[in-house]
Amino acid sequence: MRWYAFLLYPFTLLYDLVTRLRNWFFDLGWLKSTPSPIPSIVVGNLSVGGTGKTPMVEYLIRMMKKEKKLATLSRGYGRKRKGFLQASSQTSPDEIGDEPFQIYQKYGNEISVFVGEDRAKALNEIASMSDSPEVVILDDAFQHRYVKGDLKILLTTFQRPFFSDFILPMGRLRESRVGAKRADVIIVSKCPEILNAKVKGDYKSRVLDYCRPETPVLFSSIVYGEPVPLVEKMRFSSKIILLTGLANNQPLVEYVGRKYELLKVLSYPDHHDYSEVDLDKVRSFWKQHVSQNAVVLTTEKDAVKVKSKAPKGFLEEIPIFVLPIEVRFSSSGEQALVKLIQQKVFKKNEI
What we know:
Layout: H1 9-28, E1 34-35, E2 40-45, H2 53-64, E3 70-74, E4 85-86, H3 93-96, H4 98-107, E5 112-115, H5 119-127, E6 135-139, E7 147-148, E8 151-157, E9 185-189, H6 197-208, E10 217-224, E11 228-229, E12 239-245, H7 250-259, E13 261-268, H8 276-288, E14 295-299, H9 300-309, H10 314-317, E15 320-323, E16 325-329, H11 331-344
Helix pairs in contact: 4-9
């Protein structure tokens, strides 16, 4: 916690009161929560970001896309256009947001990608389509209680679990820790690949202090792939200038530092909208290390923004590589998640 956090305590109390009242109104039915017209999976968190929602959504896509007709729906955080929209080959990150655009680029030939601030209205529009999906994954919709998802997945990171965090602005929680009671499964994300039973047991015990005792608690890790050039024919080098716009880039910085020679880290806020000034800074640092054959390494999410904002010739001049990531579960963890999806989501189509 920041040293001056105690000064923010009155604002935290006020924020906590407002969010508790809102949740209470939903629990009493004074605010209406409508069941999704399409079998749905909610992926979300209690904090303001950095828990790995997009990699989790992509994991679910890979898991189900051969079995079910899928769609994703998010509000499209940071986009410059409002209303309901389906991604197509003509849409840009500015229209739908960087994360939906990333998902469309990777899976757009196999699934449908939608954005819309009013998720309940958007779901009705999707359901009315002649070729409507069988399952919709709702990205970052845990606090969007106007829609009742069939399976609610709550993510919390190993490094900063919700049970040791505090409500905004003292901490990073959007609502009280007891909001975890609404989850059907808690996934502790970004875990070390080797995690002993004692640590898992401690985390599970502390998670269950805030949710229903029967709630499954699963553990997942992030696996990084081999860097991929943003423009073809670029040659990779182990001399890295790391470019990130993440809520928490520390795990990535540590990984790159272990695997490669890390020359410089350029850090920006989550969902940063890269400007020409930012890209000029990237070029400047690259030129400082050009004699070392340095390359720029960035995330899939940041690559979407960089590619859309890059001035003419920038991508051909500077070797930029993208570091793919995937979520990994143990075999038992994956089986438990599959079972939950079959019980709570797939069976809805059979009713």
